[in-house]
Amino acid sequence: MYTTAYIRWYYWYKNFWDELLLLWVISYLVKKYGLSCFVIQTPDPDRLDQWMNMHVLWDTITIHTTNSFPLLLPKKSLLVLWWWEVLTDARVFPYNGWSYFVKHGFQLFFSDYIILWWVWTIKKRGTDFLYKIILKHAISVVMRDYSSYTIASAYTKKAVHYHDFAFDALADESYLSLGDSDQEAPIHIWETDYIIINVNVHIRNHQTIEKLKSHLSTYDETRFAFYFFPASVWNDDSDSLLLPSLKDIFSSIQMIDWTDFSLVQIEQFFQWSRLVISARLHVVLMGLHSWVPTIPLVYQEKVQRLMDEFPSSVQ
């Protein structure tokens, strides 16, 4: 029925979580709708192209990146609305969903569209009205948490609940392969024994530092290499800003910029490690997926919930 998916509001800001989600979205749309062409709106098409070109998604699929979409999409196009967490009255205009409706309402009325991600609670009449318009007329609403699914279900029978999009991307990699032959090698010639560390700005405190020291007290820097894997590397709030603080504890630690490598190469990096210790959900996810001993620095319920779903022998 559809030949092209227009993925709107995808923001390439170098967050590992979101790149996993993008791969999942493409795979989901291929399997669900048999799509062969994807047009992705992003503020930085060149940067996204660079990373996407590391992944070959079947010979029949083409991917284009752009800064903007045409006012009227071509026939047999499916509009994919991502990042609809802005559907909420917890934020003020223009960050509560109305600005997107005002700017792009024409496409919503004249295109088939699906909504991915989550929605937030409803307290104001305006938000309720917005939900009735946008959620009700979507051909599918795919939510990543049960709370969002419950809210969406009140407005449409087409709501679907996924526990975690990124985990699905890792669990089914049949659509992924390496690019050119030069990338078949690992990222580097890694040391025999190394440990992957991830921390973020939300847990930058003395207690976290002490936890790190405690967990890693038996790992001598003369025997083990330490690698810092920042999930986000894009702005003043990124994990990468914590590298100097980590160097105060582990003088030889090196940072890995995952945006330079494909997902397959990143997986190799995790699979060969001896230990993963992380605060970020999707770095914990990579460790568990690779069946490597993984220690979470829990600061959100979702991290502990993920750990509870894996066998204790992995942790």
Plain-language structure description:
- This protein has helices at residues 16-33, 45-52, 98-110, 125-137, 146-153, 165-171, 206-215, 243-249, 263-271, 281-289, 301-308; strands spanning 4-8, 37-41, 62-66, 77-81, 112-117, 140-143, 159-161, 194-198, 225-228, 254-255, 275-278, 294-296.
- It has 315 residues and is of the alpha/beta class.
- Helix 6 packs parallel to helix 10 (281-289).
- The chain folds into two domains: 4-171, Rossmann fold; 185-308, Rossmann fold, CATH 3.40.50.2000.
- The longest helix is centred in the N-terminal third of the chain and has 18 residues, at 16-33.
- It is built from eleven helices and twelve strands.
The count of domains is: 2
Helix content: 25-40%
Low-confidence stretches: 177-185
Note the beta-strand portion.
Answer: 15-25%
Radius of gyration, rounded?
Answer: 21 Å
Computed structural class: alpha/beta
Tags for this model:
315 residues, alpha/beta, Rossmann fold, 2 domains, seven-stranded parallel β-sheet, five-stranded parallel β-sheet, 11 helices, 12 strands, 35% helix, 16% strand, globular
Short recap of the structure:
This protein has 11 helices and 12 strands. With 315 residues, it is an alpha/beta fold. Helix 1 (16-33) packs across helix 6 (165-171) and helix 10 runs parallel beside helix 11.
How are the SSEs placed, and which strands pair?
Elements: E1 4-8, H1 16-33, E2 37-41, H2 45-52, E3 62-66, E4 77-81, H3 98-110, E5 112-117, H4 125-137, E6 140-143, H5 146-153, E7 159-161, H6 165-171, E8 194-198, H7 206-215, E9 225-228, H8 243-249, E10 254-255, H9 263-271, E11 275-278, H10 281-289, E12 294-296, H11 301-308
Parallel strand pairs: 1-2, 1-4, 2-3, 4-5, 5-6, 6-7, 8-9, 8-11, 9-10, 11-12
Helix pairs in contact: 1-6, 6-10, 10-11
